[in-house]
Write the structure tokens for this entry.
Amino acid sequence: MHNLQDNLISILYAEDNPQDSELTLRSLKRHNLTNHLKLVRDGEEALEYLYATGRYSERDKTQIPSLILLDLKMPKVDGIEVLRQVRNNELTKMIPVVILTSSAEEKDIVESYRLGVNSYVVKPLEFGKFSDVASEIGFYWILMNKSIT
Amino acid sequence: MKSMIETNIVRGLAVIIILNTLIAGASYYTIRQSQELRDWESHTQEVLINLEETLSSFSEMHAVFRGYVLFNEPGLLTSFFESKKNLLKKIQELETLTLDNPRQQEQLRIISPLVFEKTSSFETLIMDKKHRSVASYIGPFRSTQGIILTRKIQSLFSEMKKEEIRLLTIRKADSERNLFVAAILIFLGILLNLTFIILQYILIYKESQRRQIAEEEVELSNKNLKEYSGQLERSNKDLESFSYSVSHDLRAPIRGISGFSKILMEDFGKNLDEEGQRILNIIIKNSENMGQLIDDLLEFSRLGRREIAFTNVNMQQVMERVLEEVKDCYPGIKIETRIGELPSIKADSALLKQMLFNLISNAFKYSKDKEHPKVDIDSYQNNGEVTYFIKDNGAGFDMRYQHKLFNIFQRLHHSEQFEGTGVGLAIVKRVIEKHNGKVWAEGKVNEGACFYFTLGVQENNA
């Protein structure tokens, strides 16, 4: 059952704040996208999941997500580092990556685009807007965007 | 301001110049004086020589006459007249030479007739000689009268000589004294001059010392200033990153409160009674306000760190676009707007847009409750500087509080009346200041407000 669900996953979502992730999940749920989502708590776990190491060493690593949703500020390994590694790896370099963060700092934005992010989204504070943004991201990248695989 | 030392240096230089001029003048004067004294000396010597010669001519005349009487040689007679002529000539010369000495003149006046008498007696004897023998001469020739006359003449001449020698001694002494005094004066002058030059040197040395110290002080204070401005910059950075991360980390809990309250309302709102719903709505409203405040704060803090990038901005176009955007934010409200002629300007286009958005949406916000709300945007030229203004006929403000208008978190209206966080105009001011421009406002309660701004003359001309 676990394996079967993993195989279906098309969004990898790295977020250390459980409240933010719950709000995001709730919004994605409206578009029926939550059963395609794997939530990880930090960058380290995201990398382990992607390359089937550590906690996820038994995972089939040929199964790659069709979207990576990254928070920037995370303990241990941050979003920028995850992005760098994703783009430097043949296996994952084609996956669309969306940064979903609180930071509208120019240096964060510039660095993310320099490393090849597909989209940079600042989390809106107001719940209504936040909910809209989250569901739009899922809707666009999972349902609208035509990916290679 | 000139230093005391500097003034003294200038004074000292003037004294040195005056001293040198005085020394040169004194030298010239003493040289001329000693020249004069020497002239007098040589004059005295000339007189002495002349006297000597006169005396010897007189003696010679005597000798020649005696020879003639003894040897009766006609050649000696010629020599006698020669000597006589010579004697008279010398006496005449003496008369000219001693014009400066009245006493000698007086003596000469006595001598002249005596000499004349002497020569005449000689000549009488010569005339008589043709009729008398040699022996008969002896008596009259050796007459006591003739000897007395000779002695008198000789003594007069030697008196004159003595007088001249006395004069010579006096004049020599004068000349020596003069030279001595002059030498001492010049020596003293040079000594004084040297003293002043040394004094001057000391002053200049002191001045250079003073300047060096001042330079070191300036250098030190510059260094300190650099250090302080570095510290200030660092602490500013710290403060900025502090305020940034505070507002940044505040977002998550606010989002939580706002989000979960919304969820609560959506999922369980119907289970709550009216009062419960009202309270929940207050929580939602408050968290939304807080969220807005944090967003504004973040914007404000970001603005402080942004580097400004000047481009040519078509003010007319930008204003029209911003006005459209603002209109979209206030749907359903009919506001009469007018845009006058707006000259283009050099500015940071993104910052400018945000600033204009804040100003125009303010104008909308405060005038939307009026019966015929009007927003007027225009510009005028003043001393080559363009002033833009945005005018509304809305709530206005009390001019007594105008100094608070552009300060962060300062509001002139209650949030029940007009919502807002008190950051918008602070952002406007920061943008304007980044452009080296000015912003000010005029208003009257319930009659409207007018916001003026310039974007700096330099950027305008650049």
Confidence is low (pLDDT under 50) at residues 1-6 of chain A.
